[in-house]
Automatic annotation (TrEMBL):
SUPFAM superfamilies: MetI-like. CDD domains: TM_PBP2 (cd06261). InterPro entries: MetI-like, MetI-like_sf. One of its GO terms (cellular component) is plasma membrane. This is ABC transporter permease. PANTHER family: ALIPHATIC SULFONATES TRANSPORT PERMEASE PROTEIN SSUC-RELATED, ALKANE SULFONATE ABC TRANSPORTER-RELATED, MEMBRANE SUBUNIT. It comes from Rhodobacter capsulatus (Rhodopseudomonas capsulata). It is a multi-pass membrane protein. One of its GO terms (biological process) is transmembrane transport. Residues 109-273 form the ABC transmembrane type-1 domain. The chain crosses the membrane at residues 27-51, 96-117, 216-235, 247-266.
Length: 284
């Protein structure tokens, strides 16, 4: 009796390694191309700035050389003043954003879910929030003074429009298909809100929070230009008064970098909380 041994033939190892290497290279290229394209324009501006400073196209009193701005940045980091100004600004943004976002989320939900609020309270509030937060500062100063309460309230006010609108629209404009789904499954009002309405509204609300944070960060600089003795906005004012524009440029660079980083952090958190958006191709 002859025994026949059948052995499984595994695919060659080298082609598999080559395919994996090609896939990794393609993923790396797809990740690096947007980053390089995004850096190309700032780097070109930096090169033009350095060339203009070296050739004397613009007086150094108006546009300091990049080397001087970098040295000022290092000096501010070394003596700890930049860290102190940055900490003060971040605390103001955190307090104002937390105050504004909490109140605006609650009010936006009330506008969407409570007809009386939508009919009686929402129209005057909508009209008031259309006025820029900075226009309210003279009036708010009469009640709050010029201390921290004024800055926090103005920052919180600047958050209101995007957060309220995104929350009200996301919770109130539920597609008919999702409404029919809740009716077919005989869900209670609380179950519809938890299982259908909130998952549908979460991406739009997250977008509104990102826009609100951007508004808060922009308002921060302006309120710190007004009666403040610490923070990045004050650092800009101090540099302008001393005609040390290198300090102004350092503060501007820190504000821009941190604002971009905060937005990128919220985007990453949004993708982590809503992974189905990446699968559907809805990257906000």
């Amino acid at each position: 009796m002859t025994l026949i041994h059948i052995q499984s033939v595994s695919p060659p190892v080298l082609p598999r390694l080559l395919r994996r290497a090609a896939s990794a290279a393609e993923a790396l290229r797809a990740a690096l191309v947007p980053i390089l394209l995004g850096l190309s324009f700032p780097l070109a501006l930096l090169g033009l700035w350095a060339l203009g400073a070296a050739q004397g196209w613009v007086p150094p009193q108006i546009l300091p050389a990049p080397a001087l701005v970098w040295q000022s940045f290092r000096d501010l980091c070394a003596d700890g003043s930049l860290a102190q100004h940055l900490t003060d600004s971040l605390i103001r943004v955190a307090e104002g954003f937390a105050l504004g976002a909490t109140a605006d989320l609650a009010f936006g939900a009330a506008v969407a879910l409570v007809p009386a609020v939508r009919a009686w309270i929402w129209p005057p509030v909508q009209a008031a929030t259309r006025v820029n937060a900075l226009a309210w500062m003279p009036l708010l100063t009469l009640f709050l003074g010029i201390d921290e309460a004024l800055k926090v309230v103005v920052i919180g006010w600047s958050v209101s429009i995007p957060v309220i609108l995104s929350t009200a629209r996301a919770l109130g404009e539920l597609p008919a298909a999702l409404r029919e789904l809740g009716a077919v499954l005989h869900l209670t009002r609380r179950q519809r809100l938890r299982l259908i309405v909130l998952p549908h509204a979460a991406p739009s609300i997250a977008t509104g929070l990102r826009e609100g944070l951007a508004n808060a960060w922009q308002s921060l600089v302006i309120v710190e230009l007004f009666a403040s003795f610490e923070g990045l906005g004050y650092l800009m004012t101090w540099g302008r008064q001393l005609f040390q524009l290198d300090l102004v440029l350092v503060a501007m660079a820190v504000i821009a970098t941190l604002g971009f980083s905060l937005d990128a952090g919220l985007r990453a958190l949004e993708r982590a909380l809503h992974p189905w958006q990446r699968e559907a191709g809805h990257d906000r």
